[in-house]
From TrEMBL:
The keyword rRNA-binding does not apply. InterPro entries: Euk_RPA1_DBD_C, NA-bd_OB-fold, Rep_factor-A_C, RFA1B/D_OB_1st. This is DUF223 domain-containing protein. It comes from Daucus carota subsp. sativus. Residues 481-491 have a biased composition (Acidic residues). GO terms for molecular function: DNA binding; zinc ion binding. Belongs to the replication factor A protein 1 family. Residues 438-498 are annotated as: Disordered. Keywords: DNA-binding, Metal-binding, Zinc, Zinc-finger. Residues 462-472 have a biased composition (Basic and acidic residues). The keyword Nuclease does not apply. Residues 278-406 form the Replication factor A C-terminal domain. Residues 3-104 form the Replication protein A 70 kDa DNA-binding subunit B/D first OB fold domain.
Length: 498
């Protein structure tokens, strides 16, 4: 029986027969719809170590799920082969496979054919620049684990952990694990005496911040530590002279606050907006006067304009400029309105799509807002603002949003109750006793003393004088004194009595 190698597949027909191992298998889900299944995805590897991405669409998932297992070898026939397009592709290849209703997988005995257990496309230094902030093709990264960070909570209650590595090309970089991948990574098991530790993280996106490259895990990612394959063994030998002690990465000060602390830090209303950190409001309009996206340099992130059809920045032509969100929204609360600017990282999380994808949908001359952006109208968020010279010196009421959160009713109620108590306490502290009027009894503890009229007269008593035996009824009056001012008030009362 003849089989076709993966590198020889094309889209001319859908009756291909292949013999492969499933080296990776995962569910692709939609986090915006409570993890709803999109497809079952996998990576094929054949005996020549060729790789190819394969997909089972949602409606056929139940037909094939029980037939496939990660690590097993299969003979598969009647596969459709199509061009690999779209974002978040796990491999850099021209084609991918699609399971059809007529596709037939048959599990093979392990000794039937020698096919490697694992296969990766490790990133080359030249590929990093072209993939920066571009989710089209995901990246496999490998390196020496040198540092482990604590779990942080950022944004809308997202968990992340940073790892420091030295890549296989001797470049210092950061791997950021998100969500479920944090639970898969237990730093306690990586002991110094067992090092050096070589980590592989598949299907990452690449970003650069302040000149430093970072690899971010995605839903497609898999994590491998000290994998028993020849390439990892070579890296362990190469890094054997490096320190095997893992460094602890401290969080930045901003991440040491809990989510609740961030949501209510210096909270004010729009009317009170001055030196604020967070504000809550509802988006009631999107201002498209200045557009909703811009083109940026991949190296420095600055906005660039086309000159003679080319984008130039950093003294060179930018081959792969970025398309970035910059959305101006009008928000309101019960005290007024203001304008906020939402940049790329915020809008991408809210819409679960990129500016590039929305721009590609535009027709020539189309200036209308995409329908995806209009879905933000009517939604209420908590905004963490970054105020600057533009606001304070120039007085412009347009604020840049650095983080965004969804309000939580129980926390908001707790915050409002706490704020009401603080207001009442401030009012109470400002109350003073004016015009001889008795202050409210809540202002402090008071005591009563009985003062004889005869004692109030002060120097009228004659030494040795014998008082008559006639009973004299002494008049008494009640004087209310503050504990803090007993001496002064008593003296004033005696003077008034005379």
């Amino acid at each position: 029986m003849e089989y076709t190698m993966l590198k020889d597949l094309n889209d001319t027909h859908d009756t291909w027969r292949i013999r492969v191992r499933i080296c990776r298998l995962w569910d692709s889900t939609n986090p915006q719809k409570n993890g709803e299944l999109i497809s079952i995805d996998m990576i094929f590897i054949d005996e020549k170590e060729n790789l190819m991405h394969a997909t089972i669409k949602k409606h056929l998932a139940s037909r094939f799920r029980h037939l496939l297992q990660e690590g097993s070898t299969y003979s598969i026939k009647n596969l459709q082969v199509v061009k690999a397009t779209g974002d978040y592709r796990p491999l850099s290849s021209e084609f991918k496979c699609i399971f059809l209703a007529t596709t037939s997988p048959k599990k093979l005995q392990e000794d039937t054919v020698q096919i490697p257990r694992h296969g990766f496309q490790f990133v080359m230094p030249d590929d990093i620049e072209s993939r920066l902030n571009d989710p089209a093709i995901l990246t496999d990264v490998v390196g020496l684990l040198s540092g482990i960070g604590e779990v942080d909570i950022v944004g809308n209650n997202w968990k992340k952990r940073d790892l420091h590595i030295i890549t296989n090309h001797s470049v210092n970089a950061t791997i950021t694990l998100w969500g479920k991948h944090i639970e898969q990574f237990d730093p306690k098991i990586y002991k110094e005496e067992d090092g050096p530790h070589i980590i592989i993280v598949t299907s990452t996106t690449i970003k650069k911040f302040k000149g430093a490259v970072s690899f971010n895990s995605t839903n497609n990612s898999k994590i491998y530590m000290n994998l028993d394959i020849p390439y990892v063994m070579t890296l362990r030998e190469r890094f054997a002279r490096h320190s095997t002690k893992l460094k602890f990465i401290e969080s930045s000060n901003s991440n040491k606050y809990t989510l609740e602390e961030k949501m209510f830090f210096h909270r004010m209303s729009i009317k009170e907006l001055e030196y604020v950190v967070t504000v809550r409001g509802e988006i009631f309009e999107i201002d498209n006067q200045f557009g909703w996206y811009y083109v940026a340099c991949k190296s420095c992130g600055k906005k660039v304009e086309a000159e003679d059809g080319d984008y130039k920045c950093c003294n060179k032509i930018i081959d792969y400029p970025l398309v970035m969100f910059k959305v101006h929204v009008h928000i309101k609360d019960h005290t007024g309105t203001t304008t906020l600017t939402l940049f790329n990282n915020i809008v991408e999380r809210l819409l679960d799509t990129s500016a590039k994808k929305l721009v590609n949908k535009l027709t020539s001359g189309d200036s209308d807002l995409p329908k995806e952006l209009n879905t933000l109208i009517g939604k209420e968020f908590i905004y963490r603002l970054r105020l600057n010279h533009y606001n304070f010196k120039q007085g412009y009421a347009n604020y840049t949003v650095s983080e965004i959160y969804e309000p939580r009713k129980c926390l908001e109620h707790e915050y409002e109750s706490k704020k009401a108590l603080e207001i009442r306490a401030n009012v109470k502290d400002k109350l003073t006793c004016n015009d001889g009027m008795e202050p409210p009894r809540e202002c402090g503890k008071r005591k009563a003393s009985m003062i004889d009229d005869a004692e109030e007269s002060g120097g009228n008593k004659v030494e040795g004088e014998v008082k008559p035996t006639v009973e004299v009824r002494k008049r008494r009056k009640m004087v209310v004194l503050d504990d803090d001012d007993d001496d002064d008030d008593a003296a004033n009362d005696n003077g008034d009595a005379n």
